[in-house]
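Internal tracking record. Fields below are filled automatically when a chain is submitted to the structure queue. Please do not edit lines marked as system-generated. If the sequence contains nonstandard residues, flag them in the REMARKS field before resubmitting.
Queue: standard
Priority: normal
Entity type: single polypeptide chain
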Amino acid sequence: FLSDPPERVLVAHAILVAGDEQYLVDKVLAAVIERVVKAPGADQFDLEKRDAAELSPADFDSIVSTMPFVNDRRVIVIKNIPDLPADTRDAVKPFLESEPRGICLIGTGGSSMRGNLYQIWEKHGARIVCELPRKSPKSKQIDFDFARWLTGRAKQDFGKTLDPDAAAALAEVAGELQPLYAELEKVAMYVGDAERIALADVKAICSGCAIGTVWEWCDAVGARDTARALELLKELLDAG
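SYSTEM-GENERATED OUTPUT FOLLOWS
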């Protein structure tokens, strides 16, 4: 989707970006905005971003009633749609059903969005799901190669070669893309101009790595957590 969004999504007057992987939600949202805000400088006039929890019916009516200034459509982003007040939801439903021209209403929220509002949103517009693949509908085990993904992002976004053992260690830090990417960014900055990220670099900078850092050991000692301090000490000594 990020490399080639379907035209049917881009032309929709309403788009729902749903998922618990915030990294993907942010990427999809940016990709959609980039393609629907076409006119130069239109983001200054025809792009409005609001938090759902703070959006009253009067505010909603005001922003959807404003005509586009330079873009072909006015683009309105409402973040965290499940937080919409009940009376604002009641205003959004008939607006979606009217399929208005000159508007692109984009909403974001988690994967669990279910109910009448979201059914109407999808029926009269488009829904984009931002989730990692699962092994089965009943399984919470993620069937996704985080290490491979990190290796690709290291090369494409930072121009770094991520060693296989470094990628495997980094993948153990978290089970979601956003915190993993943050750790990758930190270690990429740590190595500076070096073209390669090694396991030692990951151990030195990523506090959540499977093999603890000396800083974690110091924290454990300071907290008088004997068991954790001894565990980390053994890991550090074994790692040289």
